[in-house]
Amino acid sequence: MLLALLRLGDQAYGIPITEEIQRRAKRDVALASVYKALDRLEQKGLVASSLGPSTAARGGRRKKYFRLQPAGLQALKASIRAIRNLASGLAYQLDPLEEE
């Protein structure tokens, strides 16, 4: 989720976030589960949200945009470091997995 927000930047709202996760993870993700996870991340102070302007194309509804907070970026960096540490020394064993 945090990686999707980082990748999408100013365009990080429900549908693009869901599509980014589906495309990268190659699995279906429910929009409702994305919003639930975003709400939890916001409660923890890792992301913040703001409402965009209302648009006629959306029947006057406003998009809810999300952005990483400094704590979210730090959490993301810590997760990536942990994955790199766990995978350290496994390059040979992981090579066949890159084809999947």
CATH first level: which class?
Mainly Alpha
What is the mean predicted local confidence, pLDDT? Answer: 90
Measure the end-to-end span.
22 Å
The main sheet comes to:
2 strands, antiparallel
The CATH superfamily name is: Winged helix-like DNA-binding domain superfamily/Winged helix DNA-binding domain
Number of structurally distinct domains: 1
Along the chain, the helix and strand elements come as: HHHEEHH
Helix count, DSSP H or I runs of 4 or more residues: 5
β-strand amount? 15-25%
CATH topology: Arc Repressor Mutant, subunit A
Computed structural class: alpha+beta
Q: Which key terms come to mind for this protein?
A:
100 residues; Arc Repressor Mutant, subunit A; two-stranded antiparallel ribbon; 5 helices; 2 strands
Write the layout of secondary structure elements.
Elements lengths: L1 H7 L5 H12 L5 H13 L3 E8 L7 E7 L1 H18 L3 H4 L6
Antiparallel strand pairs: 1-2
